[in-house]
Fold this sequence. Notes:
Blueprint: E1 4-9, E2 14-18, H1 21-30, E3 32-34, H2 42-45, E4 52-54, E5 62-64, H3 68-77, E6 81-84, H4 96-106, E7 109-112, E8 115-118, H5 123-135, E9 137-141, H6 148-162, E10 166-171, H7 174-187, H8 196-199, E11 200-203, E12 215-219, H9 220-223, H10 228-231, E13 234-239, H11 247-254, E14 262-267, H12 277-283, E15 287-289, H13 293-298, H14 316-322, H15 327-335, H16 338-350, E16 355-357, H17 362-376, E17 384-386, H18 393-405, E18 410-412
Parallel strand pairs: 1-6, 9-14, 9-15, 10-12, 10-13, 11-12, 13-14, 16-18, 17-18
Antiparallel strand pairs: 1-2, 2-5, 3-4, 7-8
Amino acid sequence: MGDQILISKINETYIRIDAPKHIIQELADRFTFEVPNARFLPQVRARIWDGKIRLFQTRTQSLYTGLHTMVQAYADSEDCECIYTDPIDKETAFSVVEARRMFQSLKISTMFEDARKEIKLHDHQERAIIHAIQARRSLLLSPTASGKSVVIYVLARYYFGVTTEKILILVPNVSLVDQLFSDFIDYATFDKLWNAEDHCHLISAGKSKITNKRIVISTWQSLMRQDSTYFDQFSTVLNDEVHLSTSQQISGILARCTRAAYRHGLTGTLKECRTNELVLQGLLGPTYKTISTKELMDDGKVAKLNIKCLQLSYCQEDRKSVKRLTYQEEIDFLVKHKHRNHFIRNLALSLTGNVLLLFQYVERHGRVLEMMIREKNEDPNRKIFFISGDTDPIERERIRNLLDREKNCILIA
């Protein structure tokens, strides 16, 4: 056996690695990556920063706890002896029988076709919850419409019962703070012993960050400036829509949660992730795939997807006029194009069922389309909703609840 690598636990965020200098340097190289499109960043262009993120700090010889398995893999490949001076991956004993007993006791329910019904968890939800509780740290890969909010609710209720400290739930925007809280109220309706309003505190712009309630639901942005002592109150962190958070947001908050032994992130995709997967694995845990979208479709749990891509043709005069335009000028041309907007309006009004129309520019395009659709709509029973960044979170939540019940409305968002 060759050199020795000693791994010791600093806290729930970091481990320390003691090894010969050449191994320290090689590990530093292995845990260094360049930020995507770094060459376009002002700091890089000004040569203030090289655009690389270094997860292994050679000065303190510290590394994110979740990456210890990669150090072990390196040791195996280099014929080194890896010695753990502290236990790192403790597992929680939690059987399927215990899990189902807990699911039954929570009496999770929701409104379905104007009647409140108990929710029976799908197999993939059960597997995700059991894996997360057993592993203590995980990154759950669960696609859209797979029921992530129920998984978050069950995990929050589990840790609420087995720990005495606070639980932090992080979401990427204000609307998801209100949406998740609304879901918690909905799921707990049949449970007479637990009330979401009594135990959950919401943090977004302007709201107090101090509370005695055990569950805190917050946006990333609201807590970015809090110091490490603030996060000492949390033993559990749950992260929804992890792929929407940047490396700075993820590391800025989770690295300071040094007492949080239980960490779980949920995302529908890692392909669109704004954070390097090493950061996610280091701060949360290894990836666990719950189910694929195709499996959900095959099982009849979500509607089968049918995509029709409509490509518009423009007259020769239009084609010539955009030939020398910049990208932004071409975008302006498109959003102001009268015939194009008429086509979008007529298409939206011609479709049956609920229609979602997405735009990027509020005043230049979204409001224009809204006015055109309202003026052309001849069905007095067809409701039209509009959502933008200016829409109040309470109004957003009201519209979301209405859409669950409506069958023939148009949402311009």
